[in-house]
Amino acid sequence: AQQPGTPLSDQEYHQFFKFLRITIQATTACHLRELYGCKNSLVQRLDEYENHGVIPPGPICSELPGNPFFHNFCTFSLYRCIMKKYFLKV
Q: Which compartments does it reside in (predicted)?
């Protein structure tokens, strides 16, 4: 079992986005985030699911060269949505 607040493994990310494609698709989740923000209960549930039940408080460091720092998980997730880098990890 993963520690709460840690990112999903590569296999878990595959399952996470497979789940989104089946139910609401990753792009729809991104539109929800853009429209309603991180305070929306559905967006928060998705963020919790993606991080084993806990949304990391921040700051967030990513695997992205040149832009490794985000103030919080919401900013990081919004960046992934805008850039369509859904599998970018913290």
A: Cytoplasmic vesicle, Secretory vesicle, Acrosome
Chain centroid offset of residue 59 CA: 14
Structure pTM?
0.66
> Between the CA of residue 15 and those of 8, 9, 18, 50, 75, what are the distances in Å?
10, 10, 5, 10, 23
Contact (CB, 8 A) for 75 and 61: no
- Average pLDDT of the residues in 82-90: 73
The tokens for 72 are 């919080």
- CA torsion 25-30-32-33 (nearest 10°) is 150
